[in-house]
Design brief:
The protein has 258 residues and is an alpha/beta fold. It has helices at residues 72-77, 90-112, 134-141, 153-156, 158-161, 166-184, 187-197, 205-208, 211-218, and strands spanning 6-14, 19-25, 31-38, 43-50, 59-62, 66-67, 79-82, 119-123, 143-147, 233-234, 240-242, 245-247. The chain is 34% helix and 23% strand. Strands 9-8-1-4-5-7-11-12 form an eight-stranded mixed β-sheet. A two-stranded antiparallel ribbon has the order 2-3. Strands 6-10 form a two-stranded antiparallel ribbon. β8 (119-123), α3 (134-141) and β9 form a beta-alpha-beta unit. It is elongated and about 70 Å long.
Length: 258
């Protein structure tokens, strides 16, 4: 089998650690609002790589039912989905295979002038894989699924073995963080932070314009509310955002299991 016809997909996790609590209250008064927020959201990243060393745009799954608007660069680097836990599930996995991976393979076959070239997709036994029908994938799309035996992915799964040791991974994360900080921590952005906080130039009114305060006030009952805030895209039923547009699962690949 040709190396560019063999693919592996798997997830990795981004997790910033434990949550933290904030209390907002008047001076010398009891706490009025208790806010608990994650130090950093848990995000699942679904990756695809080939034996030829290629990779396709990954999928980022956020622990959100409604997605906010992302910067254009984010949509260039990632496809986006979301559900309450932030983990991948059957509908999301099925959507990504049938609306992205299948199309990518069709485009690859077209460029290589081999429309019937069989594709091997190596996957583990995560429960989300049960959403795919192996028979349809092979008969319709010429994609053959190969299941890695349980508890063996650390030995047999390419994506698990193409990474670094934990120490190397930590060093790489610090290097990446250093490059990001070198771009973010310039004079303009530092001065913006001081100004937005109201600490310098001193302007305490800025604190009350913060979305953390405004959004809490909007949640309080009021008879003077004249309209609703604009909300983001609802992410349910395995929806995935491809290049800024929502795609939903279709019955092309049935939920008959493997």
């Amino acid at each position: 089998k040709k190396c560019y016809s063999s693919w592996n997909c798997d997830e990795t996790m981004l997790d910033g650690g434990k949550s933290r609590k904030k209390l907002v209250s008047e001076k010398d008064g009891s706490a009025e609002i208790a806010i608990e927020e994650p130090f950093m959201e848990h995000v699942t990243i679904l990756l695809f790589t080939s034996a030829a060393g290629e990779w396709i745009k990954p999928l980022a799954i956020f622990p959100l039912k409604t997605l906010p608007e992302f910067a254009p660069q984010v949509y260039e680097d990632f496809n986006i989905s979301g559900q309450e836990s932030g983990w991948i599930d059957g509908p999301i996995f099925k959507n990504y295979i049938q609306n992205f991976f299948v199309d990518y393979i069709a485009d690859m076959r077209s460029k290589s002038l081999q429309p019937n070239e069989p594709i091997l997709l190596i996957i583990d036994n995560h429960s989300s894989r049960d959403a795919l029908d192996a028979k349809i994938l092979w008969e319709v799309y010429r994609i053959l699924l190969l299941l890695i035996p349980s508890h063996s992915s650390h030995i047999t799964q390419p994506l698990d073995l193409s990474g670094e040791s934990k120490a190397e991974h930590r060093n790489r994360l610090l290097q990446i963080s250093g490059r990001v900080l070198s771009r973010v921590n310039n004079k303009d952005t530092i001065l913006t932070g001081w100004e937005r906080s109201g600490m310098w130039p001193y302007n305490p009114a800025n604190a009350f314009r913060s979305t953390a305060v405004v959004e809490r006030i909007e949640q309080l009952p009021s008879s003077t509310v004249t309209g609703k805030r604009k909300r983001g895209m609802k992410m349910n039923g395995g929806k995935v955002v491809y290049n800024g547009k929502i795609a939903v699962p279709t019955p092309t690949i049935d939920n008959e299991g493997l």
